[in-house]
Amino acid sequence: MRHSIFWRPDYQRHANGGRVIAEIVIAAEQPDVVANFFRRFQGAEHVTPEGEGYVVAMTRGMVTIAKPKALSVRYDRPITAPSPRLVGLRIETGEGPRKLVEIAGALIELGAPNGA
């Protein structure tokens, strides 16, 4: 695909004002397994332990990986779906410096890192 087709400004705007995905939140019973995938994908230097989980520094944001119990506290609701699961994301908008919109409970099942 040519960059001139993909990087069109009209494809980079949305009516909700979203500019960048600031954070993706993944619930995992075994955060180490998911973190190991990101170590291979992004580089070990970008994966930092935090509590019982991890934070992965990405080019334009971060990925938080935590046990469902910890995320149940964060979102004030039980996270009981099979893991690993995408359970939330934060979207940075253009309204002021770093206004963030958080959407929790997406509950989209993630496939195994090897595609199985």
CA-based gyration radius = 15 Å
> How many structural domains in the coordinates?
1
The strand order across the widest sheet is 2-3-4-1-5-6
Mean pLDDT figure: 77
SS element count, helices: 3
Topology, number of strands: 6
The end-to-end span amounts to 27 Å
Characterization of this structure:
- The chain has 116 residues and is of the alpha+beta class.
- It has one domain (16-109).
- It has three helices and six strands.
- The protein has helices at residues 3-6, 31-42, 68-75, and strands at 18-27, 47-50, 53-58, 61-66, 85-93, 100-109.
- A six-stranded mixed β-sheet has the order 2-3-4-1-5-6.
- The model is unreliable at 106-116 (pLDDT under 50).
Layout of secondary structure:
Elements: H1 3-6, E1 18-27, H2 31-42, E2 47-50, E3 53-58, E4 61-66, H3 68-75, E5 85-93, E6 100-109
Parallel strand pairs: 1-4
Antiparallel strand pairs: 1-5, 2-3, 3-4, 5-6
For the structure shown, list the relevant keywords.
116 residues, alpha+beta, 3 helices, disordered C terminus
Summarize the structure.
This protein has about 120 residues and is α+β, with helices and mostly antiparallel strands. The protein has helices spanning about 5, 30-40, 70-75; strands at about 20-25, 45-50, 55-60, 60-65, 85-95, 100-110. A hairpin with a 2-residue loop joins strand 2 and strand 3 (about 55-60).
